[in-house]
């Protein structure tokens, strides 16, 4: 996502806890800054937005992409596990969106687009793979997206969600693999017959961030090769 936004001309601030990986990524891009940030920590979130403003003097977009997934049957899911997923996948995006929106409102001429990375699991169950906390957080993020879009339209801030299908990543390691390996219920259930590739999200992300989507807000854009058609 950072590479896609950068290729579209953005200066990018990348944030996560493992800062060395971020520095390597930022080093590849023409204009990028790496910030160590645990999105669950108030002070880290404030510092992230302040760093972006100090470094670039504006804030055109926010992509809430950090997420966690802890699968398991609901009957055995500890409340603490459920709560942790809500904290990272739902509370942190809300808090970051509020900080970003405040900054965007004070900066005339900013593009003012927030993109929340939800999941198709915010639109359906994860069956056959049980995951109550994840589904609740991602469905909540879609509701939050609609509500923030409704409240902040008058400030010309657009808020949309992306709902990816199945993509190889650290999160899905063990379920799907980078060479396209996946259980039949995934590939057989996907009309396009394959997993997502990282670049499949580029166009959707850049669209939502850019003026091409100037009248699009409160929308959830599904990028899943058709999985949710079935
Ligand atoms: N892969 C899929 O098939 C799929 C499908 C639908 C939706 N999604 C969503 O897409 C997003 C990215 O997932 P992914 O598949 O790329 O998973 P991933 O490889 O596990 O990446 C998750 C990212 O979130 C960061 N992160 C996790 N906890 C954090 C925290 N407390 N503070 C800051 N950063 C944190 C991680 O960096 P650090 O560990 O360094 O902090 C990592 O960069 C998630 O929101 C996920 O739910 C993924």
UniProtKB/TrEMBL annotation:
InterPro entries: NAD(P)-bd_dom_sf, SDR_fam. It comes from the Bacteria. Pfam families: adh_short_C2. PANTHER family: SHORT-CHAIN DEHYDROGENASES/REDUCTASES FAMILY MEMBER. Belongs to the short-chain dehydrogenases/reductases (SDR) family. This is SDR family oxidoreductase.
């Amino acid at each position: 996502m950072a590479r896609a936004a950068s290729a579209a001309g953005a200066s990018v601030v990348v944030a996560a806890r493992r800062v060395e990986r971020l520095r390597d990524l930022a080093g590849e891009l023409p204009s990028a800054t790496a910030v160590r940030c645990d999105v669950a920590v108030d002070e880290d979130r404030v510092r992230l937005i302040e760093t972006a403003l100090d470094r670039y003097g504006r804030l055109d977009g926010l992509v809430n992409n950090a997420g966690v997934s802890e699968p398991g049957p609901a009957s055995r899911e500890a409340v603490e596990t459920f709560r942790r997923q809500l904290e990272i996948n739902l509370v942190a995006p809300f808090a970051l969106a509020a900080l970003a929106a405040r900054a965007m409102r004070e900066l005339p001429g900013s593009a003012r687009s927030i993109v929340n990375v939800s999941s198709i699991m915010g639109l359906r169950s994860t069956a056959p793979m049980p995951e109550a906390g994840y589904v609740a957080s991602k469905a909540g993020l879609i509701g939050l997206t609609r509500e923030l879009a409704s409240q902040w339209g008058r400030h010309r801030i657009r808020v949309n969600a992306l709902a990816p299908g199945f993509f190889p990543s650290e999160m899905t390691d063990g379920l799907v693999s980078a060479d396209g390996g996946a259980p039949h219920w995934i590939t057989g259930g996907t009309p396009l017959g394959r997993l997502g590739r990282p670049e499949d999200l580029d166009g959707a992300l850049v669209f939502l961030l850019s003026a091409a989507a100037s009248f699009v807000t409160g929308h959830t854009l599904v990028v899943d090769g058709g999985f949710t058609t079935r």
